[in-house]
Amino acid sequence: MTxxxxxxxxxxxxxxQPHVLVVxxxxxxxxxxxxxxxxxxxxxxxxxxxxxxxxxLAAMHFDLLVLDVMMPGExxxxxxxxxxxxxxxxxxxxxxxxxxxxxIAGLESGADDYLAKPFEPRELLLRMRTILRRGAxxxxxxxxxxxxxxxxxxxxxxxLRRGAxxxxxxQAETGLLRALAExxxxxxxxxxxxxxIGIQGSVRTVDVQMTRLRRKVEADPRYPRYxxxxxxxxxxxxxx
Length: 240
Known about the structure:
alpha/beta; Rossmann fold; Arc Repressor Mutant, subunit A; 5-stranded parallel beta sheet; 8 helices; 12 strands; 38% helix; phosphorelay response regulator activity; phosphoprotein; WH-like_DNA-bd_sf; DNA-binding
């Protein structure tokens, strides 16, 4: 983090504010983020490591988790994978490793976004708001329900079901499926999909999100039946 906005005004602490859990072993950065985010309309709770974060998560509801990757003990990637087995809470990873391979590893672990250190606080704020907006904004698509194989997807609710069982999706996966469901049978480019789900950086990250989504809906993700690749373009959803 390279500095805070000195003009930011302190916002009142109310239950209507998004509640974010910031997890980082750097106390100075935790304190900076707590102050800056509070000044910009967030309720902020902090934790110094994964164990403390788990205690906070067990006791309170959070709208977003901002999580450092490189921590002693259980690191951020391990905690993300563990949380993803039972939670759809949005996760934004922070790390000093900004190479594409590291970013992809973060997304593959289940994170919704990835920001390399050092970062501008305004960029962090924008990314957090984008993630929260994706979860809160109802789609404008006219499609009310789309079926493919044993699955039923309702774009407006962002709900995927296999029979009577709900399939857990992250916000990024929901956005990806929603964008494809708005154009069933039609190829959607990676660039359009990246814009639809607010992915920053290389559109290669769309492929990572697609791999994760296929694991949840395809009998054999290597030979997808419903979420097919259109070479040179992007992806297409093949409904029944």
